């Protein structure tokens, strides 16, 4: 099945009120890929992530997932199609324990795999197992990010959307998070669409990448091509982001 287009975004325009945030964006994510979307703060990366989930809605263009047009579907129906999101700012439930947060992520029609799925999350992030009874709000930033990804994985997604998973985290933790994403992709064939300001880490991880500037996709290529591209290097990789 590798190579089948899983997510196809065509000509998408998104507005906040009268302000156009996305100017006709085209992005394709194929099954089994890790695709990175990089760009400066305010380029529209998170807006694209949220538009996939229908909040805000695309005013023009189409978003197709696994052959189904999801552009106008309500958010809960999109989630039911096994697209899971680890949103920017993590948004875990601070008063719930690690275990309760994971339970919130499990999809109700997949409960026969529940124990196995919890075990997979703990294998991926052993730190969460050590913190199983701790409240989400008392975890470190890195642990909260692990929990956010773990919670998304409990839904057994076909597509995992990650919005700024490395934001505000120490380099060692960022490496652990990126290693875990690579591992999920390699061992489970999980398809990942990743929005990142950490261009270097994201492009090293990604099969392919897109560069977004002011609501437009300005460049695309393999992760290696973009890492080697002088314009990308000058804009996103100089200045010690390694």
TrEMBL record:
Pfam families: ABC_tran. The keyword Cell inner membrane does not apply. SUPFAM superfamilies: P-loop containing nucleoside triphosphate hydrolases. GO terms for biological process: L-amino acid transport. One of its GO terms (molecular function) is branched-chain amino acid transmembrane transporter activity. Its EC number is 3.6.3.-. Gene3D superfamilies: P-loop containing nucleotide triphosphate hydrolases. SMART domains: AAA. It is an enzyme of class 3 (hydrolase). Keywords: Amino-acid transport, ATP-binding, Hydrolase, Nucleotide-binding, Transport. Residues 7-239 form the ABC transporter domain. Belongs to the ABC transporter superfamily. This is High-affinity branched-chain amino acid ABC transporter (ATP-binding protein). It comes from Mesorhizobium metallidurans STM 2683.
């Amino acid at each position: 099945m590798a190579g089948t287009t899983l997510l196809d975004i065509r000509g998408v325009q998104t507005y906040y009120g009268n302000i156009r945030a996305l100017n006709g964006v085209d992005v394709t994510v194929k099954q089994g890929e890790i695709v990175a979307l990089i760009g400066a703060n305010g380029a529209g990366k998170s807006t694209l992530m949220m538009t996939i989930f229908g909040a805000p809605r695309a005013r023009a263009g189409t978003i197709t997932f696994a052959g189904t047009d999801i552009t106008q579907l309500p958010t809960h129906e999109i989630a039911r199609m096994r697209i899971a999101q680890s949103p920017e700012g993590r948004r875990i439930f601070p008063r719930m324990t690690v275990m309760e947060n994971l339970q919130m992520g499990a999809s109700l029609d997949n409960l026969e795999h529940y124990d196995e799925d919890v075990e997979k999350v703990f294998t991926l992030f052993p730190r969460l197992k050590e913190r199983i009874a701790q409240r989400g709000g008392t975890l470190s930033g890195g642990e909260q990010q692990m929990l956010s990804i773990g919670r998304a994985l409990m839904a057994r997604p076909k597509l995992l959307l990650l919005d700024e998973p490395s934001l505000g985290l120490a380099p060692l933790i960022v490496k652990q998070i990126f290693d875990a994403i690579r591992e999920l992709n390699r061992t489970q064939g999980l398809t990942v669409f990743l929005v990142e300001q950490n261009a270097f880490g994201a492009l090293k991880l990604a099969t392919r990448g897109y560069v977004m500037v002011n609501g437009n996709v300005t460049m695309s290529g393999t992760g290696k091509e973009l890492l080697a591209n002088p314009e990308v290097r000058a804009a996103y990789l100089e200045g010690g982001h390694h």
